[in-house]
Amino acid sequence: MPDIAENVLEVRNLKTYFYTHDGFELPAVDGVTFSVKRGKILAVVGESGCGKSVTAYSVLRLIQKPGQIVDGEILLHTSDGQTIDIVSLSERSDELFHVRGGLVSMIFQEPMTALSPVHSIGNQITEAILLHQDVTKAQARQITVDILTKVGIPGASERTGQYPHEFSGGMRQRVVIAMALVCKPQLLIADEPTTALDVTLQAQVLKLIKDLQADLGTSVLFITHDLAVVAQMADEVAVMYLGRIVEQSDVRTVMKNPRHPYTIGLLKSLPGVSTEAERLPSIEGTVPSLTEIPPGCPFHPRCPYAVSGTCDVGGPPELQRVAESHSIACVRAEEINGK
Amino acid sequence: MIAAEPLLSVRNLRKFFPVFGKGFFQRRVGYVKAVDDISFDLMPGETLGLVGESGCGKTTTGRTILRALDPTDGEVFFRSNGETVDLAEIPNRQLKPLRPKMQMIFQDPFSSLNPRMTIGRIVGEPLVIHGMAKGSELTDRVAEMLVKVGLKPEHAIRYPHAFSGGQRQRAGIARSLIMHPSLIVADEAVSALDVSVQAQIINLLEDLQSEFQLTYIFIAHDLSVVKHICDRVAVMYAGKIVELAKTETLFADPKHPYTQALLSAVPDPDPDVKMNFALTGEVADPANLPPGCSFNPRCQYAQSRCTQSIPPLREIEPGRWVSCHLLDEPESPPSREDDASGPKPDND
Ligand SMILES: Nc1ncnc2c1ncn2[C@@H]1O[C@H](COP(=O)(O)OP(=O)(O)OP(=O)(O)O)[C@@H](O)[C@H]1O
Ligand SMILES: Nc1ncnc2c1ncn2[C@@H]1O[C@H](COP(=O)(O)OP(=O)(O)OP(=O)(O)O)[C@@H](O)[C@H]1O
Ligand code: SF4
Ligand SMILES: [Mg+2]
Ligand SMILES: [Mg+2]
Fold it and tell me: What span, in angstroms and rounded, lies between the C-alpha atoms of B65 and B77?
């Protein structure tokens, strides 16, 4: 038995920037550090635009111009004891091909990113299977029908000949989920996998991912903004704001005893099936654009705990440990307590 | 105030898509009954929620009402300037001046925004098409709308690819609201947004509603959002409305077994309250429905009559409609068995 690392994925100080044609540098992901434990689910949550998808794309090296990974390390520790340094792989290497769709697969937030409009649903999945698995065409077709049935496509064998535009939004999303699961990846990156699904199907798909985790030991990087889904799925949670991780801990701590003011605000904005309030509470203000990130703590203009002279000067606060496996990037970390 | 005349009356609306067989001649072998006999009224200023399984026909219902799709059958009466027209049958020439009055906010912001146009042009395009603003007035109105949805005036010169999903969704909302329409079909309009931004957009939609007497058909999967924003809710299953009631009534006491299953699958934000994965079985296939009630293969209460005849949508009490054979006899309505699986009040 080779020595298998405890983490399947380690991301260290990742920086992915975009360069606009009018000369701006957008630090979409700006020094992100996290790891996914083998066999566990790490959820990444945060405001829209905070860099969740860009982080996921970086891990698969799918960042395209005008974007670029400018710094950091992404290490994939495979179950046979190898370590792959993803940032250093060359674009056309066999290793990168093996990573994408083999070792690591991704459920895209926008199903049409992963689907071709001009090929039938069935052919697209069958192709993916043939690329990464050693099976015959007939076997691949059977696997396709099985996986489509599993993700809840009714009449799967009759519908394999149909095209994406003939499927509803949620059905397309299930096709993409099927495609990601079919190659039994070691790491599954799920970018908002159930946002387009109704709650009963969501339950079914979440169960499918949980089963995959339990049966095959698949590790999952689960991106979502649905805090209830986080509560039900995650082992650990990382909260992002403006390209940085501001809080990270186990799911119970983050949901029940959050300590970063942004996390506290997020949990307060939950509409909650039982909230009768006329207006939903929300975090004051809007997310600043990446061209004008405030000095000091990037959250300070919206933070009810901000202290001038402390929070609005210098660089962004470092992620620091406040308890056993609980980290927060806040100048006032020691004083603030969620409940 | 809610006026007495409905803004919209949908009657027996149907939208079927043909299914073609394999092989050279591509014979039509059946239909996907995406929308199958839907009727409801919508009052001005009201918000009607449309919820149900993915693929049950919500988007198709919305698009058919707005005549983005031609209906297979049925009527869609729409009131505009004191006159009532049947959107389902009027010719395109008459439809065009009505288009600004009815807008859709889309589910998929990625494919609905033209990648070759700046956000400013996308948002302002309806004003240009209908010749309602140009020059600096156009720029000003676009900027004002962008700010209203939480974007910035300087975003106007950027292209959609430079925005995240949530930001694109805001741009889509700005585009739909810029004409000050009277009817808006919001199809998963806030689904891509995280909770704090979602709360802002919902508050915005509510503010605009009271300011301009907007009427919403609100399609969503997130039941907590539906509960917050909607006056009434229609639950769809396999192309039909199976339950329609006031929001509070529906959430407090769902009658249709599918509605009950749906509500019990809402995940709880408390990690110690375990989720219910109960509703299993195959998702309904609108191209191949079982005889009788479409929900019968998955219904724990199903009886022999459920496989024999389609239960009609009946008004079991004023304003409360359900289609389930169990409610044919008022003595034995199904009640929710385990309230424990339902949503919890948050009492901290
Ligand atoms: N091609 C691009 N060009 C310029 N900026 C980009 C590009 N792609 C992404 N960005 C910027 O990077 C930031 C992060 O985007 P990302 O898609 O990762 O957000 P997200 O957290 O996934 O949001 P959402 O919840 O809305 O999906 C955004 O501000 C976005 O504008
Ligand atoms: N252009 C089309 N051609 C053939 N079938 C279609 C077409 N558009 C939709 N359908 C079918 O009609 C049914 C209803 O689709 P619709 O998009 O209305 O569902 P929905 O309730 O909006 O689902 P979701 O929640 O996933 O968005 C689905 O079975 C879908 O496959
Ligand atoms: S009609 Fe019968 S099968 Fe349909 S939901 Fe009611 S009890 Fe279940
Ligand atoms: Mg994203
Ligand atoms: Mg839809």
Answer: 9
- Please tell me if the CB atom of residue B116 comes closer than 6 angstroms to any atom of ligand 1: no
Distance between CA B327 and CA B316 in Å, rounded? 8
B249 in a domain, yes or no? no
Shared-domain flag, residues B222 and B105: yes
pLDDT digits (tens, 9 = 90+) for B90-131: 999 999 889 889 998 876 656 678 878 899 999 999 999 888
Instruction: Outline where chain A has alpha helix (H).
Output: 52-59, 94-99, 111-114, 121-132, 137-150, 156-159, 169-181, 199-216, 227-233, 251-256, 261-268
Together in a domain, B44 and B161? yes
Q: Is residue B145 part of a domain?
A: yes
Same domain, B161 and B48: yes
- Indicate whether B222 and B268 sit together in one domain: no
Asked if B166 and B298 sit in the same domain, the reply is no
Least-confidence region, from A58-62, A212-216, A240-244, B172-176: A212-216
For residue A72, how many other CB atoms are within 10 A of its CB? 18
Q: Is the peptide bond before A2 cis (omega within 30 degrees of 0)?
A: no
Please answer whether residues B128 and B100 qualify as being in contact, where contact means their C-beta atoms are separated by less than 8 angstroms. no
Give the Cα separation of B240 and B39 in Å (integer). 9
Mutate to test the pocket of ligand 1, among B149, B164, B168, B201 (most ligand atoms within 8 A of CB): B164
CB contacts, 8 Å: B288 with chain A:
154-155, 158
ipTM metric: 0.77
Cβ contacts (< 8 Å) between B23 and chain A: which residues? none
Nearest-neighbour CA in chain B from A271: distance (Å)? 6
CATH code, domain with B43: 3.40.50.300
pLDDT tens per residue, range A21-45: 777 888 999 999 999 999 999 999 9
Flag whether B342 is in a domain: no
Taking the C-alpha atoms of residue B72 and residue B16, their distance in angstroms, rounded to an integer, is 6
Query: A193 to chain B nearest CA, in Å?
Result: 11
Does B204 lie in the same domain as B100?
yes
Residue B121's domain comprises 8-230
Q: Domain boundary residue among B230, B247, B269?
A: B230
Residues of B in contact with A110 (CB under 8 A): 108, 110-111, 165
Same domain, B154 and B269: no
User: From the CA of A194, which ligand is nearest?
Assistant: 2
- A219-223 and A83-85 strand pairing: unpaired
Q: How many domains does chain B have?
A: 2
Ligand nearest to the CA of B191: 1
Which residue did the predictor score with more confidence, B187 or B275?
B187
Residues B159 and B58 in one domain: yes
**Distance (Å) of CA A305 to CA A38, A299, A335, B208:** 36, 10, 10, 31
The answer to pTM > 0.90 is no
Question: Cβ–Cβ of B107/A169 closer than 8 Å?
Answer: yes
Ligand 1 atom at minimal distance to the Cα of residue A57:
18
